[in-house]
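Can't paste images in this forum, so I'm doing it all in text. The chain is below; anyone willing to post the predicted structure tokens underneath?
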Amino acid sequence: MKIVTRLNIALGTTCLIVVICIGIPFVTVRGLSEVQAKLSTYEQLNQETALSQELQLQVSNVWQFITDASLTKDKEVIEKEAKPAYDASLKIVSKMLELNKDESANAARLKEMQKSLPAMWESGIRMFAAYAQSQQAGDRAMEEYDKACDSAIKAAADIAASKMKSGKDQMTLVSSGTSSLARRVSTGGLFSAAMGLVVMALMLFLRRSIMRPLGAILNEVRLLAGGEGDLTKRVDVKGNDEISEIGRALNTFIEKLHGIISHVCVSSQHLASSAIELNSTSRQMLENTTQLLSESTTVASAGEEMSATSSDIATNCHQAASSAADATRKAGEGADVVAESIAIMGMIADQVRQAARTVETLGARSVEIGAIIGTIEDIAEQTNLLALNAAIESARAGEQGRGFAVVADEVRALAERTASATRDIGGMIKAIQLETRDAVKSIEQSVAQVEQGTSHAAHSGRSLEEILGIVNAVTDQIAQIAIAAEEQTATTHEISGNISNLKGLAQFNNNALHETSIAVGDVSSQAEQLKNLVGQFRL
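Text version of the structure:
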């Protein structure tokens, strides 16, 4: 039988036992719940029995208290003792009605009693009133009252008897349920213990059926491992289970390993001889590559020097081109400045001409002012003569003309000041006219000089334009030289890069050949070690 089959059988049996063992507590819990429900019902019945007995007691108390009160004619007994007992009876009936909603028989009795209790109470009150009137009336009322009390007590007794009977029946059910539950628990415990023993026995059987053949194969493998490389030994296989298949697979592996080791032994011998030949060849290639590396280094140095020279030429050309560009820019700026100067000098000439015209106009105005001043002088002289005549006439008038003489003196003094101021202004006007003529001459000379400067500036502008054309031509030639130098530098860099790559390849080949030589030595050594290792196996 296969190990998997045995394990599946054991697993299925164990699962079945576990399910059964798990089901036992559920059954037990269910039985316990049923017992608890029955106990709860029993406790309720006991409570109702106690209430029905209490109801009997309270009805009897009402009967007794009202009877005593009627015979003794003591109304206080009714109020303090009979009435509380009556109220308690009604409360008990109401409470029992709530507890007996599902029991139609007891519910009907309780509803009937709920109606008869007030009638009994009214009958007792009438009996008390009848005894208060006469003994005979009271005795007749007592018969009615006793019947009502007997009926109420009998109804309460019937209810109590019914509840006691139901309680006994429920107790019987609880007892039987408890006994059944105890039997279930006992049976479940015994069954669980038996199933545990079965599982243990099954596990021991499986362990023995698996470990015994596995231990036998393990012993054979240890013997094979300790046999000093003897690949002729095989595992003794018995049976048809998975462990037997492992043994057969191990024997197949040993057979394949035997073939591989035999092949490796032959290959290691060929590898050792090939490694010796490869070592000699790699040494020769290493010497040739070393010589190539030395020559590549020399060529690379020359290429780098040539590249540096070309780079210097290109740099100088760029600097010259930059300087020429600066000169071109400066010349252009100078031409712009000259053009601007010409324009400004033209504006200055126009402004100077305008100033000359203004000064000439000012001279003409000064002449007009001189004429006006002459007129003012004439007016001052006439005023002076008039003031003199007025003074003469005032002297002739005597005292009457004295005030007029004072006015005439003031007018004459004013005329003299006017004449004096007019003479001063005339002198100033003449000085202004002289200075105006000098200013006009200076302005005319300035205009001539500005026109001459404008002519020279225009000539300088033309010269700067010619210089700018020459500088542009030189700049173009320098740019062409720089481009050629850059192309030469790029070509030199490319040659230098190719030489560097060749040098790198030569260095890489040199290192690779050196590493190959070392690896060949290692391969030769490992081939010898492999040969020694393979020699440890017995083929």
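The two ends are 37 Å apart (CA to CA). Residues 242-397 form the longest helix (156 residues).
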